[in-house]
Amino acid sequence: MTGKAPAAPAGGGQTTKGAPASKPEAGAEPGLWLVATPIGNLDDISARALTVLASVDRIACEDTRRTGRLLARHGITGRLVSYHEHNAARVRPTLIRLLRGGGAVALVADAGTPLISDPGYKLVRATLDAGVRVTGCPGPSAPLLALILSGLPTDRFYFGGFLPARAGARRRALAPLASLDATLVFLESPRRLAASLGDMAATLGPRPAAVARELTKRYEELRRGSLASLADHYGAAGAPKGEIVVVIEGARAAAAPALSDAEIDGRLAGLLATGTVRDAAAQLSAETGRPRRALYARALALVRSREA
Length: 308
Description:
The chain is of the alpha/beta class. The chain has helices at about 45-55, 65-75, 90-100, 120-130, 140-150, 165-175, 195-205, 225-235, 260-270, 275-290, 290-305; strands at about 15, 30-35, 60, 75, 80, 105, 135, 155-160, 185-190, 210-215, 220-225, 245-250. The protein has three domains: about 15-140, Tetrapyrrole methylase, N-terminal domain (Cobalt-precorrin-4 Transmethylase, domain 1, 3-Layer(aba) Sandwich); about 145-250, Methyltransferase, Cobalt-precorrin-4 Transmethylase, Domain 2, CATH 3.30.950; about 260-305. It contains eleven helices and twelve strands. The strands form three sheets. It has a five-stranded parallel β-sheet with strand order 5-3-6-2-7, with helices on both faces. The protein is elongated and about 85 Å long. The N and C termini lie far apart (about 85 Å).
């Protein structure tokens, strides 16, 4: 049985390949909609988000070309409005007038959840001040996906966005976070990645971390290790391609009890049973905060004593 897709509300977009959701005729109610979009794979978008995007009066986006490709992929035409940090102050009053008049506006980022490292919160604040409803369609978020894939604690986390580009300012921004008992999550530029990881290692100490790259895309990569080893890797390999998220273990809620020399040797012996001297020293350094060089020397002495 065939049928005709319901028409979208006046002024909104419409689907060109059938209904994008189970009840598209409901459309988007008046107000500001914060709609999460895919961070890589264009199929990572909800049916409800497609319905909203197909029926709002305007879609405010960072890059109309990028959002246009997403809409075309799902058979949606819509009235796109460029809205980014350079024109937000000029465009925002126009969007607020539309919202006050009973219109529906969707705000999207180039990828992921809007308001995460973009100026969208100012539009939300202005919409609320105007007495207009704000709601949203949750969905993809690169920082959250990197966090849950990292293997690090997820019960508490701190999202720091992009750190400063200059080394001195970057270290000053990291310093107050050294004692924070929460997993740290940052966005980073590929060309600054190695330098940032080095500053993180110097400021935060020997901590386990993960670097997530190109999440949900064909060349997705998640590399885990200590901050120092990750800095060494990307320093030697050069700047990677794609979008980067760095996840770092937070400070412990309470300092771990000091281990005796005998306990250190026992722990090293256990690690040496399945790994190299270098790996054993690096792992125990990350766990205890002890200098890696000193632990390497102890591990090497243990190996030599066995061979004697």
